[in-house]
TrEMBL record:
It comes from the Bacteria. Signal peptide: none annotated. Keywords: Endonuclease, Exonuclease, Hydrolase, Membrane, Nuclease, Transmembrane, Transmembrane helix. It holds the Pfam family Exo_endo_phos. The chain crosses the membrane at residues 6-25, 37-57, 63-84. Residues 113-319 form the Endonuclease/exonuclease/phosphatase domain. This is Endonuclease/exonuclease/phosphatase (EEP) superfamily protein YafD. One of its GO terms (molecular function) is endonuclease activity.
Length: 328
């Protein structure tokens, strides 16, 4: 039995080592390599457990035993290099607000991918009523969801609604005036993004980019970038470089990014991740305890401070909603 367990551990270890090393090629235009970038938390935990089990069970040490230990250790180091930025072992990128005096410089945002085929609107509406955010960004909005969310217009008089039937519809509701809203299609005519100029209570303007790029995989009957460069975020980066006002980027980015914002957007030291130094806040998959990673993001420029960051309860979608309070 012990010999059988060791063989199983060898097989698992080799798979983990290969996946961890191949994940370094995350930016290659091969979607299967990119997908290895997602389960870094799982690869790290499994590699560590496999290493400890192998050391405790193995009694005869040969060259291949040491090679296995080295390989697993390399995998642990590779994944921890990415993950450490989302622990309290590193400094935060977006400072926590101190000495908050008034409320005119602050605002709140709730973002949620409701999953187009989810037909439970009450949970998200109850969360909105509970949190009372100033801005609401909802993704995967089809005609059904658009109709159900229209009840928000009583308390949220400003909005941009661009639903569609291919899982990339998006709506933005706001208590704050939307001075200007541009609907853009960065890489796909069926995948909208918004650029909104929002007026805060103090009269200052901020720019809010709402984005939901396609994932690095092919889904039947859904838009994707098969055969194209995945450059939606790079196009967004050009807009951010030319920004006029303090800027926020938020949405389901379909990417874990692992603090690679500069590479994905081709911006350098412009956008900062509110998660860095605070935690993973895994927003996907709400239906699985084991396969979870952060897909829904809030990135801000240097003018912002963070007051609160929360992952909210399940709403029937495969994504958890995210809630953030920011101060300009």
């Amino acid at each position: 039995m012990k010999k059988f367990l060791l063989i199983i551990l060898y097989v698992i270890a080799i798979i983990l080592i290969v996946c961890s090393i191949l994940s370094l090629f995350r930016n290659a235009e091969i979607r299967y390599l990119k997908m290895l970038d997602f389960p870094r938390i799982q690869l790290f935990i499994l590699s560590l457990l496999t290493l400890l089990l192998f050391i405790s069970l193995n009694k005869k040490w040969h060259l291949h035993s040491y090679l296995l230990i080295v390989g697993l250790s390399i995998g642990i180091i590779i994944n921890s290099t990415f993950l450490i930025n989302y622990t309290t072992l590193v400094s935060v990128e977006v400072p926590t607000v101190k000495d908050l005096k008034g409320s005119e410089d602050q605002f709140s945002l709730l973002l949620s991918n409701v999953k187009m085929f989810n037909r439970q609107e009450q949970p998200i509406l109850e969360l909105i009523n509970l949190k009372k955010p100033d801005l609401i960004l909802v993704m995967e909005v089809d005609k059904w969801w658009d109709e159900k969310l229209k009840v928000l217009s009583k308390e949220y008089p400003f909005s941009q609604r661009t639903p569609n039937q291919v899982a990339y519809g998006m709506v933005l509701y706001s208590k704050l005036p939307l001075k200007e809203v541009e609907v853009d299609y960065l890489t796909n005519e069926k995948v909208p993004s918004f650029k909104s100029t929002i007026v805060l209570a103090n009269g200052k303007n901020i720019t809010f980019h709402s984005i939901h790029p396609v994932p690095p995989t092919h889904f039947k009957n859904l838009p994707d970038n098969k055969g194209q460069e995945e450059n939606a975020l790079k196009k967004l980066g050009k807009k951010i470089k030319d920004r006029e006002f303090p800027t926020i980027v938020a949405g389901d980015l379909n990417d874990v990014i692992w603090s690679y914002t500069d590479d994905l957007t081709e911006t350098e030291n412009i956008l900062f991740d509110v998660r860095v130094g605070r935690g993973f806040y895994n927003s996907y998959n709400a239906n699985s305890l084991l396969m979870r990673w952060p897909l829904d993001h809030i990135l801000v420029t240097k003018e912002f401070r963070l007051k609160k960051l929360e992952r909210l309860p399940k709403i029937g979608s495969d994504h958890f909603p995210m809630y953030v309070e920011l101060v300009l």
